Amino acid sequence: MLKHLLLVAAMFTCISLYSQKTQFPWEFGFQAGISSMQGDLVVNDITILSQPSFHAGVMVRRRLGGMLALRAHLMYGGLESDDAESDDAGRIARGASSKTSVIEPGLVLEFEPFAAKRFDGGVFKKTLSPYLSGGIAYGIWGDAIETNYGTQAGTPAAEADIQAQSDDTGGVVFPMGVGLKYYLSPKSSLGLDVSYRLTGNDLLDGFSQSGNPATDDTYVFSALTFATGFGKPDTDKDGIYDEEDACPTEAGPLSTMGCPDTDSDGIADKDDDCPEVAGLANMGGCPDGDGDGVRDIDDVCPTEAGVKALMGCPDGDGDGVADKDDKCPTEAGIASLMGCPDGDGDGIADGDDACPAEAGIKANNGCPDRDGDGIIDKEDECPDEAGVRERNGCPLPKERAETLEERVTRYSEMLDTLNDDMYMSDFDHISVDSLRGTINIDRVYFPTNASRLNRPDRIIIEEIDRFIALPGASEFSIRYEGHADRRSSDEYNQGLSERRATSAEVYSVDKGASESKLSVIGFGEKRPVGETLRENRVVIPVATEPTRMIKIN
């Protein structure tokens, strides 16, 4: 046992010497709770529910940076088990019971990924922090084990267990656990720790051959913990103790040796010429946004890469004039025209020449007038035809668009035309909108979740077919626009609206309408056409016609 304890102490010392320095690198603590055993007597699925006994311990922890810590501990716990607590009649009849204790020195490595967050940004914050643990320990079993073998007493197996128990004083165990800490202050924490022990020993409860020799005994420590740190001072509470902190009275990150870094660029504010703007080390902490080697604070053109000779401004055309002063920064020019060329040689710099690629006269700002109508070509919408100014250089038109009044009159005459074959009256579901000059068609309404046409709906569509068959309606087209209410998913309502529109189109084609004059679209629930559910379960037939032109005499 002494050999194992010396090995544990040596490991702890070596890791402590080479660990990363941090605030309060050492912690002392204690814990108290319950200990439970899982052995050859009562078997419970959850070990901590197996006849818990008192458990207590002390520990010393060494921080190994932001996420790891090494913990040395000395634990004591009672371990009890009794067949009388079993639900199995055979175990109850056996009547065996056991009581012992364990003293355990050990060394455990803790992995705590969020521990450093309690000093986030150099300022302490109360934090909940989970952790995992695992390590090695040495269990020293109690000498006084009270065992009642019940119906097993006097058997060879029981006698063998008694002899083996008298020779067994302890062994190596492997703690594995989980825990949760709450940091009350920069150095103190409360916690909950549950740690399971693999023992490699089957005689903790005094039973092996007379019990279950194929399975080793285990035990669990479950406890509340308290720990407090000690070590060198950290005046600014940034997680770096003063002797390693270049700015011990100002909180800062480890990357700048504890000094503030307002812009988080890795350069301490005291060494940063631009402490509030992230920059580069070779620029004294200042940014160089355009990457031209001139700091933004010294760069006249900080968003454009340039040359030092022009204080960081570019000269894209290489004519010796900085682009910001060059009226033609992408074309090499002459200094007398502020860097602009005169490509057509008309004496006007291209930058001021309304027509830089064509020679003209100064009266026309350098532009030509090919058709001689007194309107320069660049303002002449018909540069090769003499025209008038009120038409931007184009000749007077030979035709005009039909007026609203003319269109309303024409539409009204169309709808008043009787069907010579059927001798039917004027249209009942189609009318003229005299304000807009459009054809209005009654809407087709559907029941909930339906796309099948009813008889009244078919009459409307049959009337549409008669309308587009009229001689004066040859240019008209019909679009069936389907809609749905909001009582289902967007995807379903989209499909429903498309089916409704398609049912109208199919019926129209079946009645003889030309497919080239018909189209459909579904809007689902995205374009409601009314406030009630019924108003949105609808197909709206929309009639359109290209603008009609009328010749001018």
Q: DSSP strand (E) fraction?
A: 25-35%
Count of extended strands: 17
Envelope shape:
flat
- Give the termini separation: 122 Å
Tally of separate domains: 5
| H/E topology pattern | HEEEHEEEHEEEEHEEEHEHEHEE
How does this model look, in words?
15% of the residues lie in helices and 27% in strands. Strand 14 (477-482), helix 6 (490-510) and strand 15 form a beta-alpha-beta unit. It has five domains: 2-16 and 25-230, Porin (Beta Barrel), CATH 2.40.160.20; 234-287, no CATH class; 288-337, no CATH class; 342-396, no CATH class; 404-551, 60s Ribosomal Protein L30, Chain: A. The protein has seven helices and 17 strands. The protein is flat, with a radius of gyration of 47 Å. The termini are far apart. The protein has an eight-stranded antiparallel barrel. A four-stranded mixed beta sheet has the order 13-16-14-15. The chain has a two-stranded antiparallel sheet with strand order 10-17. With 553 residues, the protein is α+β, with helices and mostly antiparallel strands.
Write the layout of secondary structure elements.
Blueprint: H1 2-17, E1 26-38, E2 53-63, E3 68-82, H2 89-94, E4 97-111, E5 127-141, E6 146-148, H3 156-167, E7 170-183, E8 188-201, E9 217-230, E10 399-401, H4 404-415, E11 430-433, E12 438-441, E13 444-445, H5 455-468, E14 477-482, H6 490-510, E15 518-522, H7 533-536, E16 538-544, E17 549-551
Parallel strand pairs: 14-15
Antiparallel strand pairs: 1-2, 1-9, 2-3, 3-4, 4-5, 4-6, 5-7, 7-8, 8-9, 10-17, 11-12, 13-16, 14-16
